């Protein structure tokens, strides 16, 4: 029964190391996705530290690939030193992912304050004639999230751009996608998106941060299982005289 348990631990450990390689790619993808998406919304928040969880998760993903390689070699050869190193590195990565989860929750809570602090300034700097990066960001967000203004389309009436154009119209990016003859005129409010962008931007950014948090939690659980299996193998190797190596050619070192 004991030997069956130790063999199962070894098998699970080998399988987990393969998962670590897959996890490395997934974590790097999640981190890159956060960077790319935040780039579309970066004008709506000023605190660059909100990207720290994404940076950490990309670093963890890169490290997981190396861990998977070390773990596979240590498990197949059943090196005591290799397995101990594997457990220590996994523990460090596990702690790092816990930090990612904590930071994710902290910055997720700060997103609303960040957007609320900067969105009015971004909208006030809109220039529809010669759109700069901030103006393109507003048009992109309004089309992508199907929103108009900060709280609703009437917010445009308080912007410098609206007062300068004097045509009682909002940007065409406020027009509903299904309408081809929309001019953005406030005399036809039914042609415009009724929902404001602030709440939707906050929701989008918080969703992105949740992807980071759930990815970190999922792979932290896998690493915990990996540490458990490695510790079982190490303990049985040290105490059980009837211990059998997984493959011929393994080492007792």
Automatic annotation (TrEMBL):
Gene3D superfamilies: Tetraspanin. Pfam families: Tetraspanin. It comes from the Eukaryota. InterPro entries: Tetraspanin/Peripherin, Tetraspanin_animals, Tetraspanin_CS, Tetraspanin_EC2_sf. It is a multi-pass membrane protein. It is found in: Membrane. Its main location: membrane. The chain crosses the membrane at residues 12-36, 48-71, 83-107, 208-235. Keywords: Glycoprotein, Membrane, Transmembrane, Transmembrane helix. One of its GO terms (cellular component) is plasma membrane. The keyword Glycoprotein applies. Interacts with claudin-11/CLDN11 and integrins. Regulates the proliferation and migration of oligodendrocytes, a process essential for normal myelination and repair. Belongs to the tetraspanin (TM4SF) family. This is Tetraspanin. It comes from Galbula dea.
């Amino acid at each position: 029964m004991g030997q069956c348990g130790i063999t199962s631990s070894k098998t699970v450990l080998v399988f987990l190391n393969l998962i670590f390689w897959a996890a490395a790619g997934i974590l790097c993808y999640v981190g890159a996705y956060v960077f790319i998406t935040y780039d579309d919304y970066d004008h709506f928040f000023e605190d660059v530290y909100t990207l720290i969880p994404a940076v950490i998760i990309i670093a963890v993903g890169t490290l997981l690939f190396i861990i998977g390689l070390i773990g596979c070699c240590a498990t197949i050869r059943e090196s005591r030193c290799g397995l101990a190193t594997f457990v220590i590195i996994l523990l460090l990565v596990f702690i790092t992912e816990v930090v990612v989860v904590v930071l994710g929750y902290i910055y997720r809570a700060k997103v609303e304050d960040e957007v609320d602090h900067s969105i009015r300034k971004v909208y006030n700097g809109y220039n529809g004639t010669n759109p700069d990066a901030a103006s393109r960001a507003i048009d992109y967000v309004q089309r992508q999230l199907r929103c108009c203004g900060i709280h609703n389309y009437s917010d445009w009436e308080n912007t410098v751009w609206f007062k300068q154009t004097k045509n009682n119209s909002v940007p065409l990016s406020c027009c509903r996608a299904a309408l081809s003859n929309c001019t953005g005129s406030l005399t036809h409010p039914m042609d415009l998106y009724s929902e404001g962008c602030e709440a939707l931007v906050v929701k989008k950014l918080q969703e992105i941060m949740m992807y980071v948090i759930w990815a970190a939690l999922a792979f932290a659980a896998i690493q915990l299982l990996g540490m458990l299996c490695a510790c079982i193998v190490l303990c049985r190797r040290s105490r059980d005289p009837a211990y059998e190596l997984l493959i011929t050619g393994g080492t007792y070192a």
